Amino acid sequence: MIPRLLTNVHDVAKAKPQSAAMARRRNNADALAASPTLALAILAVFLAFCARSASAVGSTPHSAFSYKDSDPDGPSKWATLQKDWAICDSGTEQSPIDVAKVEVSKDLGPLENTYKAGAATVQNRGHDFMLNWKEGNGKLTLNGKEYTLLQVHWHAPSEHTVNGTRFDAEMHMVHEDAAKEKAVVSVLFSTKAGKPSKLLGDLVPYFEKLTGKQNATEEVKDAVDPAVMIDKASGYYRYEGSLTTPPCTEGVIWTILSKISTICLCLIAYQVSDASAEQIDAVKSEDKTEEPNSRPTQKINSRVIRYYEGGDKESTAAPGPRRAGPS
């Protein structure tokens, strides 16, 4: 049996590759009948904060590079911009990648974490909103090592793809160990269907306060529990990669959940329950400054993507042909 990604609509992993914008251009008269003012408000916030992106954890200034390949500082030219960015081109373990062939690994198991509700802040980084825990939040254990959860942010469209299919958005949960080595848990999002995220809904007031205030920060009134951000029953893909923006440092452990979260894309940017992806797309055509904050996929080279099936056996799994892992 060839495994497939989980959605509660249909198997998007087997669909022909398409951009997030194409996926959102489906006709939906009922959706378009809703308030254009609401959609415009959501769009304004989304575009303002997704124009540029920092690395998964890096501190590279947001103005130092671009995501448009036609720009002189676009992705294909990152390696030429600074000497210590050369690995963006010469590296053999770069991220993101297309998940196509996987190896079922018997030595992998459920994700072990000690996430807990804790004090957090929301920051307007100029390209997105970042949810940050000042003292870190709980631990993720990988290969016997503990990584502290530091922050969460989003990319749109997704950086990683599956069988060539790019999803509407991707969330990165950024971790770091005592030696400053990085581990990122990734969650892919689809607008095929979805229910509002209560956690993101609770953050709306902070998004509103921070709109237009680059680098400003707001303390979140109530403790934020990152445990609700991941599905414990989901399988996942594991591989070694890099930061997804300059300096493209390698040695990052990536864990991509195989179960697709089906909240609406608009909820990621500005959590308003009743706005549809179609409404947002209709308004986007009026704004020509839209720019994604996602790096193109990189060569996998000799790397092996390991796969853990997870607890949801009914429709879990990985894309493409799979090989038996070590016994």
Automatic annotation (TrEMBL):
Keyword tags: Lyase, Metal-binding, Zinc
Statement: the UniProt record of this protein carries the keyword Coiled coil: no
EC class of the enzyme, as a word: lyase
Disordered: region residues: 283-327
Catalytic activity, EC: 4.2.1.1
Any one GO MF annotation of this record: carbonate dehydratase activity
The organism's place on the tree of life at top rank: Eukaryota
Organism the protein comes from: Urochloa decumbens
Catalytic activity: hydrogencarbonate + H(+) = CO2 + H2O
UniProt domain Alpha-carbonic anhydrase: residue ranges: 63-309
Protein's recorded name: Carbonic anhydrase
Function: Reversible hydration of carbon dioxide.
